[in-house]
C-alpha cells in the first residue's frame, strides 16, 4: 500500500521537475496528486478497518492544504 | 493557561487536545489553509495599493546570460558568441515595443516580426534568432528553462551564430510587473551578401530583473534599480515555513504517540509527511518564469 503512494509521489516529483516552468502543468499535477492521495487514504483506512468520516475529512484537508500552497504560489 | 501549556496544546498530543496536536485536528488544518489564503490575498492587496511596495525582483544580468550561453556552447564544442552592441540595441528595441504594445509574443499585435528590430538597429545578418523570457528570478533558472526547451536550446547551441545581444528590462506587461529578457543571436553579413536564412526566434518569458543595461554612445551603463519585495518570493517563503512547521508537528505527534503508545482514530502521519514533503519540494522547484 505504501509503495503505491511512494510511486505516485515519485511520478509527481518527476512531473514537477520536468514542467517546473509551466505553472498550468504544475498546478494540474498537484491537483491530480492530491486527489490520488485522498483516494489512497480512504483505501488505506478501509483496508486497515480504521475508516471514519472524520479521517476522510482529514485527508481532504491535507490534500487541500497542498493545493492551496501551490496555487497561491502560481496563480 | 500558561504559554507552555498553550504551545503543548497546539503542537503536541496531550489530554487537553484528545492526544492529537490541535493544529493536526481538522479545525487546525482548516485554520492553516485559511491563514495561507488570507495571507495571500493580503499580499496581493498590498501589491495593488498605491504604495506599490511589492514588485518583481530579479538578479539576472546581461553578463551572466552571455557567460552562461557561452558555457553551454563550449560544452558542445562550439565557439563563444561575441557581444554585439547593434544586436543589444535590437533587443532593447524589441523589449520597448513589447511594453509599448503590451504583448508577450515573438510577433507584435501590429504584425512586427522579430527581424524588424535587427534591421532597425542596422544589424545586417545572414542568420538570426530570438529567445524571450519573463518572470525569472535569476540567470541559472532562466538558462535552465531555455536549455530544457528544445527550440530555445537550438538557438543557444546553433553553430551558425557568431554574435549575441541581450536586453534585460523591468516594466509592466499586461498589468503585471515583470522583467523581460530578450536574447538575440546573429551572424552578420559581409558586404553585399544577401540574407540567406533566418532562424526562427524563440521568445521566453522571464521574471522581472533588477538590472537594466543602457547604452549611451560607446558606454554601457548598468543601472541597478531599488530592491523591492517580491510577491512570489514572499509567498514562497511563507508557504515553505508553513509546510516545514506542519511537517515538524506531524513528526513530533508521531514520535510522542509511539512513545506513549497512544491508540487514536486519525490519519496516517507518515502519509501526511510524505505528501506535504512533496508539496514542499514542489514549492522549491517550481519556477515563476516563462519562456516562449
From TrEMBL, chain A:
UniProt keyword list: Membrane, Transmembrane, Transmembrane helix
Membrane-crossing residue ranges in chain numbering: 25-43, 55-74
Highest taxon above the source species: Bacteria
Protein name per its UniProtKB record: Uncharacterized protein
Amino acid at each position: 500500500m505504501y509503495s503505491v503512494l511512494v510511486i505516485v509521489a515519485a511520478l509527481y516529483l518527476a512531473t514537477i521537475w520536468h514542467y517546473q516552468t509551466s505553472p498550468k502543468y504544475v498546478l494540474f499535477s498537484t491537483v491530480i496528486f492530491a486527489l490520488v492521495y485522498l483516494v489512497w487514504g480512504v483505501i488505506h483506512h478501509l483496508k486497515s478497518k480504521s475508516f471514519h468520516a472524520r479521517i476522510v475529512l482529514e485527508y481532504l484537508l491535507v490534500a487541500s492544504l497542498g493545493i492551496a500552497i501551490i496555487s497561491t504560489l502560481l496563480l | 493557561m500558561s504559554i507552555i501549556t498553550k504551545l503543548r496544546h497546539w503542537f503536541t498530543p496531550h489530554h487537553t487536545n484528545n492526544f492529537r496536536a490541535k493544529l493536526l485536528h481538522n479545525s487546525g488544518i482548516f485554520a492553516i489553509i485559511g491563514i495561507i489564503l488570507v495571507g495571500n490575498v493580503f499580499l496581493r492587496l498590498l501589491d495593488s495599493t498605491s504604495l506599490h511596495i511589492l514588485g518583481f525582483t530579479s538578479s539576472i544580468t546581461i553578463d551572466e546570460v552571455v557567460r552562461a550561453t557561452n558555457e553551454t556552447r563550449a560544452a558542445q564544442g562550439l565557439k563563444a558568441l561575441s557581444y554585439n552592441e547593434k544586436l543589444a540595441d535590437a533587443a532593447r528595441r524589441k523589449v520597448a515595443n513589447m511594453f509599448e504594445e503590451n504583448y508577450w509574443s515573438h510577433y507584435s499585435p501590429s504584425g512586427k516580426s522579430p527581424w524588424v528590430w535587427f534591421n532597425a538597429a542596422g544589424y545586417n545578418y545572414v542568420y538570426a534568432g530570438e529567445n524571450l523570457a519573463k518572470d525569472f528570478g535569476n540567470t541559472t533558472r532562466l538558462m535552465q528553462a531555455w536549455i530544457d526547451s528544445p527550440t530555445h536550446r537550438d538557438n543557444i547551441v546553433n553553430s551558425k551564430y557568431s554574435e549575441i545581444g541581450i536586453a534585460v528590462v523591468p516594466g509592466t506587461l499586461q498589468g503585471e510587473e515583470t522583467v523581460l529578457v530578450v536574447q538575440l543571436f546573429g551572424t552578420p553579413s559581409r558586404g553585399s551578401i544577401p540574407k540567406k536564412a533566418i532562424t526562427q526566434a524563440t521568445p521566453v518569458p522571464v521574471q522581472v530583473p533588477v538590472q537594466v543595461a543602457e547604452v549611451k554612445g560607446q558606454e554601457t551603463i548598468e543601472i541597478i534599480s531599488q530592491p523591492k519585495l517580491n510577491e512570489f518570493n514572499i509567498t514562497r517563503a511563507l508557504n515553505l515555513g508553513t509546510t516545514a512547521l506542519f511537517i515538524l508537528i506531524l513528526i513530533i505527534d508521531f514520535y510522542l504517540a509511539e512513545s506513549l503508545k497512544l491508540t487514536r482514530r486519525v490519519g496516517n502521519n507518515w502519509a501526511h509527511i510524505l505528501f506535504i514533503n512533496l508539496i514542499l519540494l514542489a514549492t522549491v522547484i517550481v519556477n515563476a518564469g516563462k519562456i516562449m
